[in-house]
TrEMBL record:
The keyword Hydrolase applies. Pfam families: CT_A_B. GO terms for molecular function: ATP binding; hydrolase activity. Residues 280-299 are annotated as: Disordered. Residues 23-298 form the Carboxyltransferase domain. SUPFAM superfamilies: Cyclophilin-like. Keywords: ATP-binding, Hydrolase, Nucleotide-binding. This is Biotin-dependent carboxylase-like uncharacterized protein. It comes from Microlunatus kandeliicorticis.
Length: 299
């Protein structure tokens, strides 16, 4: 068992979510930054679908009843075990009743803490993910919560230390199903503006502020299906980048879709960050392009 001594501003249980249930109104949810969550699991030899902790702006302190391998990924920050610096993106051994502390990062937003064997509270609809929009899954963690740890399912991989992700300055787009709602002027505004991240951003979506993007029409759509990374353009002309806890449907045009790596990167944006949206056509067949600097796991 591990004990949450301090959860920080927000600490959640996450895994790969609840895919395949949108037809009955159940969102997918899951880790906001899937790449960093997968990397944490890989460092401790977990299955990709194991559950782990997702934290916002650090402040997390954990203790374990037993010796436990763990790894912290996400933006570079101070991580300590019993006051000793251990850093991110490496496997470390957490002795019994010794604090693991994840500090607030100077940039970026979310960290992932994986423990060998994964966390195994009871699943809800096949997942241990907390969905803040629908309310499905475990409640946000509180001080004193105790979390069971599962048995290892594979060999412990070789010890490595990997670099933290680069700062997010650009997000890459492919065209969305309602690209035709933008003329040349509107598209140029979308990809030519340096946007600022609004304080009204969360796991549901990242709201961007800047000069309004003009649409061809003020008409409205019947609700259509949404995916993680959908770039929706409401009548205000301020884009919304949908995240892991996006609703199943939405009624505003989706003019573009973030590539999977950029959807992960968007989950690390914090209020006040500035970002540009960049477009690169995918190759024939609609496959997503690989962004410059994308990690090997995204290729």
């Amino acid at each position: 068992m591990i004990t949450v001594v301090r959860p920080g501003p927000l600490a959640l249980l996450q895994d790969l979510g609840r895919p395949g249930l949108a037809a009955i109104g159940v969102p997918t949810s899951g880790a906001a930054d899937r790449g960093q969550a997968a990397l944490a699991h890989r460092l401790v030899g977990n299955r990709p679908d194991a559950a782990l902790l997702e934290t916002v702006l650090g402040g997390l302190e954990l203790r374990s009843d037993d010796p436990l391998w763990c790894a912290v990924t996400g933006p570079a920050t101070a991580v300590t075990v019993d006051g000793r610096p251990v850093g991110t993106h490496r496997r470390v051994l957490l002795p019994p009743d010794v604090p693991l502390v994840v500090a607030a990062p100077p940039r970026g937003l979310r960290h992932y803490v994986a423990v060998r064997g994964g966390l195994v509270p009871p699943p809800v609809l096949g997942s241990r993910s907390t969905d803040l929009l629908s309310g499905l899954g475990p409640a946000p963690l509180r001080a004193g919560d105790r979390l069971p740890v599962g048995d290892p399912t594979g060999p412990l991989p070789p010890a490595v230390r990997l670099p933290p992700p680069a700062a997010v300055g650009e997000l890459w787009l492919t065209t969305g199903p309602r690209r035709d709602w933008l003329d040349g002027t509107g598209w140029s505004a979308l990809v030519g503006t340096t946007w600022e991240v609004s304080a009204e951003s969360n796991r549901v979506g990242v709201r961007l502020t800047g000069p309004p993007v003009p649409r061809r029409t003020d008409a409205e759509l019947p609700s259509e299906g949404l995916v993680r990374g959908a770039v929706q353009l409401p009548p205000s002309g301020q884009p919304v980048l949908f995240g892991a806890d996006h609703p199943v449907t939405g009624g505003y045009p989706v003019v573009a879709v973030l590539t999977p790596t950029s959807a992960d990167a968007a989950a690390q944006l914090r209020p006040g960050d500035r970002v540009r949206l960049r477009f690169r056509p995918g190759p024939a067949g609609g496959a997503h392009p690989v962004e410059p600097g994308a990690p090997a796991t995204a290729r």
